[in-house]
Design a protein that fits this description.
Strand content: 35-45%
Largest sheet: 6 strands, mixed
Number of strands: 6
Radius of gyration: 14 Å
Strand order of the largest sheet: 2-1-6-5-4-3
Distance between the termini: 38 Å
Length: about 140
């Protein structure tokens, strides 16, 4: 299957891949030089990942930490800049380590060029990391 190239459809396709726990497929949506940033990352958490491999390394164990069940609220705003979208969304699931509920809201600014993600700024709630068991990528903090 060919990946969608329009930013909103590519993003929605990426969400489906995350729900299917197809991290390799999700990483395949990234440009080789893509950059992922976490502007609100708390101390000890990554602030910037440079390159597809860095994103792959960060996301590799995601399903071992968070079992995503749904993205019940997703609103994608197109911008006046070609290839740039702003996404508001909510993710729900469970934390694998504690088997407790997981819910997180996000705002993301995503840039897509030539059908691949080149930039992804993820504005997630850093206060949520106080939840026991929440370590989305298994990072050593």
């Amino acid at each position: 299957m060919t990946n969608p190239t329009e930013p909103a459809e590519l993003y929605r396709h990426g969400l489906r891949l995350l729900l299917e726990k197809d991290i390799s497929g999700w990483v395949g949506l990234w440009d080789e030089g893509g950059v992922m940033e976490f502007p609100f990352a708390p101390e000890g958490w990554p602030v910037r990942l440079e390159g597809r491999q860095a994103v792959a390394d960060y996301m590799r164990d995601y399903p071992d930490h968070i079992d995503l069940h749904d993205f019940p609220d997703v609103t994608i705003h197109r911008t006046t800049t070609p290839g740039v979208i702003v996404v508001e969304m909510r993710a729900v699931g469970r934390l694998v380590k504690t088997d407790s509920p997981f819910e997180m809201t996000y705002i993301a600014v995503v840039t897509v060029q030539d059908g691949l993600i080149t930039s992804y700024r993820d504005y997630w709630n850093p206060l949520a990391v106080a939840q026991p068991g929440l370590d989305p990528a298994g990072t050593d903090r």
